[in-house]
Hints:
The complex is a heterodimer. Chain A contains eleven helices and nine strands. Chain A is α+β, with helices and mostly antiparallel strands. In chain A, the strands form three sheets. In chain A, strands 2-3-7-6 form a four-stranded antiparallel β-sheet, with no helix packed on it. Chain A has a three-stranded mixed β-sheet with strand order 1-4-5, covered by helices on one side. Chain A has a two-stranded antiparallel sheet with strand order 8-9. Chain B is of the alpha/beta class. Chain B has a nine-stranded mixed β-sheet, with helices on both faces. A two-stranded antiparallel sheet of chain B has the order 2-3. In chain B, β4 (about 55-60), α2 and β5 (about 80-85) form a beta-alpha-beta unit. In chain B, α2 (about 70-75) crosses α5 (about 190-200). The radius of gyration of chain B is 24 Å and the shape is globular. The N and C termini of chain B lie far apart (about 75 Å). Classes of the chains: A alpha+beta, B alpha/beta. The interface of A and B includes residues 11, 48 and 50 of A.
Amino acid sequence: MPYNPSVKHKLIRDSVRHFAETELAPIAAEIDRNAVFPVEVIDKMKKLNYFGLQVPKEFGGAALDSVSAAIVVEEISRVCAAVGLCVTVHNGVAVFPFLQFGNKQQNEKYLPRLASGEMIGAFSLTEANAGSDAGSVETTAVKNGNDYILNGTKIFVSNGGVCDLALIFALTNTDQKQLQSSVFIVESTYEGFLRGELEDLCGMRANPVSSLFLENCRVPEANILGKLDMGMKIGMTTLDNGRIGVAAQALGIAQGAFEAAVKYAKERQQFKKPIASLQTIQNYIADMATEQAAARLLLYRACELKDAGEPYGCEAAMAKLYCSSLASKTTSLAVQIHGGYGYSKEYDVERYFRDAKVTEIYEGTSEIQRMVIARAILAKLTL
Amino acid sequence: MLQLVVCIKQVPMVTELPWDEKSGTLRRDLAPGMMNPACKHALEAALQIKEKYSAHITVITMGPPAAKEVLYEALAMGADSTILICDKIFAGSDTYATSWILAQAIKKQCANVDLILCGAFTSDSETAQVGPQLAERMNVPAVAYVEKIEVNGKTLRVRRIVDNFRETLEMECPALVTISMENYLPRYAGLGGLQRAFGEHQIDILDAAALGVGVGDVKQEGSRTKVRRVFLRKTDKENVFLTGVAVNVVSEFLNKYERKISTVIGKSIEGKNRTNEE
Lengths: 383, 278
């Protein structure tokens, strides 16, 4: 059982694990194969507060601390990373900006609906020419009376196919000398909000990732999150938090693959003994277990800094960098330990292997994480 | 408002724990604890009664300090208050001593109880004794293996499956039921409930002194059973490998095991077809 800082954390882990193993484990392989979003299980999760992890109680949320929220994402992803993605995107980068930047009216209007899961949220920064370079957004928002008219295309939007609300980054000042973006709260029912086909992706296929098209989409001025031209700040702050979520997700994938590998190593007989008795396999297991323990501490440290109100961007980037690279490494080793069977869709490690890769890419690639970390280190006067 | 008491137990998360051969006790350190499944069904029954008729639910467990975990879980699921009965001198108590300790706690803390609910049995020791024994200690009527409860004032109508028929019984409060795992599928603990369990509730802890219980009542002195020896039953199973051409292997298999298989499945598998094929 992974490290739990408190009794509460252990109980939350046990409870979420029980839910995930009962509800998601039986369908995880199938919904991945057929790229189906598991609506029925999601509905159950809504009732159990999985969509309001850190939303205050007065808005109907669970008001969890950040370690607890990370454990939830870990445990869901340990069984089904695609649903883990849905949960972490919704909570980490769609709900979180409201908690940080939303005004009273916005929070009262949207937080209860987001926390109950009545609305599933998405975060739309990425465009064809803007990813790591968040400043190159080309979607525009032009003022028209009390509204803004949005035009542009967002790509690779996690939850895109099912979201009821998307936070859209759009340029509100197109003067080349002082480009400024703002974040718009866009409901999926607004005219001019259109979804593209679902992407046919390598992993986490049960998450409906799609493009979003804004075609003269009219959005009330009151739906500018925070303040006008605050896009970059909201984006960077939100990504800091989102990285904790992706780190938790990657760690959950690694944990799932690790457990499958250990179980298999104890069962699989070669040379008339379980392969777990071979020193090479034991070394793999020891390294995986040690690195996972380290990754978990790195992740929870970022969570605790966040809850303490300390700066945590650098630590979140470290956690994301380490956990995602660990996920790729662990899932690869898990496939290796399974041998030929690991390359077959009959075994879960094949799915974990495909799921892990993108954790090194989205919410900032590993290269971007290193930039964030190095920038923070180099800015310090004392180390 | 009905006063309900649910007795629950923390058990190891795996069904087959190894024994420590020297002490004769289970190696509980090898597996994390969880709420015993039948106890969870009993709690669910109480929660459904609460939703339908309005009730106050007190959940009680006896165990080491770590058993608090299952009480927090009970709070998260919807219990109103919880009691942990915890004292080193309680270690090693059998069902006879345990039911006595539980009865003291209920008499002391929940004197006006209407209904006590227990799981029908635990997954670790499976005696199914504590519930009925507790009813004797409390001097209240008891029905075991209940799968449905209806409340009408202070009268309970309960249904249970006995052998191959259903039995409906009526009993007056205060009473005790043990709940089977047929119905009352336990709800999941919600995340908000879990958070609130730790923030808004406290667990009352009762030790031997608080209960007025002495060493003579509990532990080995108060227990009527003693574990003399624990051993693994030796089995004389052997693996038999049949090799060769498939037709011959099947034929050899049937010749060797036909009678055994017939006995197990309850009908003859000797057929004309096989004779013809041969």
